[in-house]
């Protein structure tokens, strides 16, 4: 699959840096807020850009590896949490409301059948993945189909006026899938990528590690290509988030990745097209050990470190507010000349 993504032009970074020096503040005094604003200006190629109508999309899908006992929660929770999102009762609903962020929920692979519901975008590719310990999680066609769903959802958000895109997920068992992808992408041992997820005890963690080790043995030598990796040990919602990153970058919009699972999807998008990295903003550092390894591999610094590990786009919702503040300061602050304030002598 080919996506028309071009890197940001360094010339626009330099123009933004020059504007920062004209604003009524000491140079560099807003720290990383200046870095955020400069990169956004380069993405939009406009020094008067607006981060209007921020939107977070939650992609939901189930995982066949749950059969290995890798989660303390039953798989039915995925569908139950989708209903919770749609009813406005989840953490992400509260954070999105507080920040004025639009929220969309996409069923790309929930195992349980979901009826047509207000607020639910039905784009199901399959009823969950298969158990990657024994066979590929998806066919290549299913993986590409889920990628396409994410790509199109990003395009629709942009067409509806969203200039700041974020994403998150819901899927019981997906920390095991993300850990498998992390080990494959970074070369670390499965034990170094596995964390507690939704509250796994030591026995559950051991099952997660063993499941990934069996998956690597089953798919040995077939995980180098990112699409092959995605189809063999990935997830439908992870594939859709990967496509969402590609779709946002191809339409020149900043895209905010959430925590561990979302960052695994972003890392796959960068593997598919390195230019995606110019458009990615890492929301926060999850307490999941694999997340730190993914961020290091991507060479990106998260905006927040609040010891969160919920997923659902919650970290993205917080980081998007910081990005909006950075944009407001950059585009709205007076210059030394316009305010009649003396600059540095």
Give a verbal description of the structure.
This protein has 345 residues and is α/β, with parallel strands linked by helices. The chain has 2 domains: 10-50 and 329-339, Nicotinate-nucleotide-dimethylbenzimidazole phosphoribosyltransferase (CobT), small domain (5,6-Dimethylbenzimidazole Phosphoribosyltransferase, Chain: A, domain 1, Orthogonal Bundle), CATH 1.10.1610.10; 55-324, 3-Layer(aba) Sandwich (Rossmann fold), CATH 3.40.50.10210. The protein is built from 14 helices and 6 strands. The chain has helices spanning 10-22, 32-44, 76-86, 91-99, 140-159, 174-186, 190-193, 202-218, 226-233, 236-250, 260-272, 289-298, 314-332, 336-339, and strands at residues 55-61, 102-109, 120-122, 165-170, 255-257, 280-282. Strands 3-2-1-4-5-6 form a 6-stranded parallel sheet, with helices on both faces. The longest helix is centred in the middle third of the chain and has 20 residues, at 140-159. The model has no long low-confidence stretch (mean pLDDT 97).
Helix content: 40-55%
Shape: globular
Low-confidence stretches: none
Number of strands: 6
Radius of gyration: 20 Å
Q: Briefly note the structural class of the backbone.
A: alpha/beta
Order of helices and strands, N to C? Answer: HHEHHEEHEHHHHHEHEHHH
What is the highest CATH level, the class of the largest domain?
A: Alpha Beta
Number of domains: 2
Average pLDDT over all residues: 97
Key attributes of the depicted protein:
six-stranded parallel sheet; 5,6-Dimethylbenzimidazole Phosphoribosyltransferase, Chain: A, domain 1; alpha/beta; 345 residues; 14 helices; globular
